[in-house]
């Protein structure tokens, strides 16, 4: 059946508009100079909870950012509904330059790096002295990631009522890393919390640790108004705790301008992304001695100039041992 007569012209023929937008594409992006500043508190399935002045605002990433993702600790620029009312949604249009980044990979063979936290001042590595047993290799890997990412490390040793800290502290004493030792009784009484707070005031601190070491219990004591579910069970066979924190969350430190970032419990900490040459920067007493090293020296070979540097009395031999132990974690499996 003919829709048109024999003598039709183009005005008689109807055409449907295309489904696609016919406007020409442009590389020019809006500047959003009037965007408000915010801090990313947590990320959950594409929705980002941000602090804008004194309001908690839900937001999503603007398409113009492409694959660039915002993480907890990021300082961002937001537009849209910034009221913080229920069901309101803002847009993150810019991620500001980061001052530090904590990264990890699933394992040493995985090239895909994950940004855990941005803009933190220090990394608090929480480990139990017993139940579960300390894992020095995992601690070493966290330290390497902290040095590479521009964070100052802090050791927090928990459950000292179950085992003494001396042996573990001996391993890290030569790295000059600040530390705090706590027990369960001290956490309940608040004396341990006060000692930890001294290391956190005025800083943004990311907390990492193996599942079951008491990390979230400590965070709850530091930020009592924001209780997170803790683990009360450590598997007697594997010595591993059950994950109770499933996403990173930034919390304001009570009575201070500091922030605490609680992160999910770790099972592994891959260092595929870390250049071993960066680790030496954490040893200013050894770094000048590398000038005599052969090209691409691993600092653990017969021609390494650091052996002579230490033998001449420029640095403590234990410091060289510590450096080589940290460098070795880049090549060693975490569970060794």
Kindly describe this structure.
By secondary structure, this protein is an alpha/beta fold. The protein is 19% helix and 23% strand. The protein has seven helices and 13 strands. It has helices at 136-149, 166-172, 184-189, 191-200, 215-222, 306-311, 317-328; strands at 36-44, 47-52, 55-61, 75-80, 90-95, 101-105, 113-118, 122-128, 152-158, 179-181, 204-209, 249-252, 259-262. The strands form three sheets. The protein has a six-stranded mixed beta sheet with strand order 10-9-8-11-13-12. Strands 1-2-3-5-4 form a five-stranded mixed barrel. The protein has a two-stranded antiparallel ribbon with strand order 6-7. Strand 8, helix 1 (136-149) and strand 9 (152-158) form a beta-alpha-beta unit. The longest helix has 14 residues, at 136-149. Mean pLDDT is 83; it is low at 231-244.
Residue windows where pLDDT falls under 50 for at least 5 positions: 231-244
Helix content: 10-25%
- Rg over alpha carbons: 26 Å
Measured between the Cα atoms of the first and last residue, the distance is: 80 Å
């Amino acid at each position: 059946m003919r829709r048109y007569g024999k003598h039709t012209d183009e005005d008689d023929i109807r055409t449907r508009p295309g489904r696609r937008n016919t406007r020409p594409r442009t590389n020019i992006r809006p500047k959003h100079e009037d965007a408000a500043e915010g801090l990313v508190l947590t990320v959950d399935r594409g929705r980002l909870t941000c602090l804008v002045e004194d309001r908690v605002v839900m937001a999503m990433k603007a398409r113009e950012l492409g694959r660039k993702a915002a993480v907890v600790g990021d300082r961002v620029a937001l537009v849209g509904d910034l009221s913080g009312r229920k069901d309101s949604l803002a847009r993150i249009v810019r991620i500001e330059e980061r001052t530090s980044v904590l990264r990890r990979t699933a394992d040493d063979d995985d090239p895909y790096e994950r940004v855990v936290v941005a803009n933190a001042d220090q990394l608090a590595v929480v480990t139990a002295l017993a139940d579960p047993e300390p894992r020095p290799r995992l601690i070493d890997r966290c330290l390497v990631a902290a040095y590479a990412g521009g964070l100052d490390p802090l050791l927090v040793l928990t459950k000292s009522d179950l085992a003494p800290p001396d042996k573990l502290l001996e391993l890290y004493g030569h790295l000059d890393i600040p530390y705090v030792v706590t027990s369960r009784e001290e956490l309940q009484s608040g004396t341990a919390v006060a000692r930890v707070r001294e290391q956190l005031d005025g800083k943004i601190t990311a907390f990492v640790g193996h599942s079951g070491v008491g990390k979230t219990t400590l965070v709850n004591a530091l930020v009592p108004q924001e209780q997170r579910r803790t683990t009360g069970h450590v598997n007697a066979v594997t010595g591993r705790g059950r994950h109770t924190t499933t996403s990173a969350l930034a919390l304001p430190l009570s009575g201070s301008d500091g922030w605490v970032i609680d992160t999910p419990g770790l099972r592994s900490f891959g260092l595929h992304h870390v250049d071993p040459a960066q680790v030496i920067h954490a040893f200013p007493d050894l770094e000048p001695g590398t000038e005599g090293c052969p090209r691409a020296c691993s600092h653990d070979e017969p021609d390494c100039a650091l052996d002579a540097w230490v033998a001449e009395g420029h640095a403590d031999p234990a410091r060289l041992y510590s450096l080589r132990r940290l460098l070795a974690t880049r090549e060693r499996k975490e569970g060794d």
